[in-house]
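Okay, can you check this protein?
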Amino acid sequence: MTCLDNISYNKIPNDIIMRYLDLYQFIGRNDTMLKIIEDDYEALTAATIRTDSYFFAQLIGLKISESRYKQLIVRDVKPKTNDEAVLRNIKRAFQKIHGETDSFTLFSREIQDLLKFLYKDAGTDTDLNFAKTVKKPKASINLLSSGKKTKRDELESLIQSYENTKKKNQYEASFININFYLDFIQLEPFKKHNDTLAHMLHYILLIHDDFKAFHLSSFFEKLYKRREVFEKLFKDASHNYKEGLADTHDLHRFILDIALESYRDISEILRNYTFDQQLNKSDYIENTINRLPEVFTKEMIRNEHPTISESTINRTLKRLRDDKKIRPLGKGRSAKWMKLYPTQKKPSLNEQLNLKL
């Protein structure tokens, strides 16, 4: 039996209920939160998409150099390898998710279409088909039991269990979603890439169920940084799965903690956003330059301040150049700048990409 079939036997622990209460306080302010940043929503979600794309690719083990990550995520250059094509597709998938999640419905056909979208131009079509059902020993087959379900049939049944559980309105959405996630991976409906698809589906379901913080705070950054813990919790939850005794509570706690952290991040983002609106933006950019490495680019500044105009950045660079605080190294959009005073902090490459490692 699946986790969703057995969900009624689960008693929700008190500490998880307390997490719900904390989380609902934030979810209840979703509309207010998004209203504050509505003028710059696209720029802010674009930054989240870049970060999620990077860490999702890391999570599923794509082999791409750091320099190519930057080009593919920020500049949308043409992919050269299968893994680079997958990264491009991941970014495009996130762009669709952040724009169209409210209308998402689980269907086996849509799930397969998502798989094909993620691996378009990155493998053979046969890898993206439904897996074959393992044949039972002939001794167990008789006239009454000879009809066996295909993997597509089993996926349809899992989706139906998900929909039926949601309709009961007796269980918190995130708990239903994590049970679906575990069931999907255990089912392995497709020949390849089931883990990748499960991560993406789980993410879609969370946003669909009002976890709006993930529009502005990277879910996969937090998941990737804790991947060893997540993998252990997943392994623990999978114990005795075939016997119908899987326990997903610790895995559920993990996801709720990420959601709470994301909402707290959003509170900080909104404070900074409001401050940014009130502060002299040129001074704000100068403060950012102080934190950048000795040699930096305008692109680094744009990543830090996606809502500040290009002209404001250019005016600030010109002012600092005239004050002999910086000097250009080359010309054009890709030109670098050098600071003529000591650097306060040297960030990592991922911080330079605004990937917030």
Remarks:
- The beta strands are 295-297, 326-329, 336-339.
- Residues 295 and 338 are 4 Å apart (CA to CA).
- Residues 249-278 form the longest helix (30 residues).
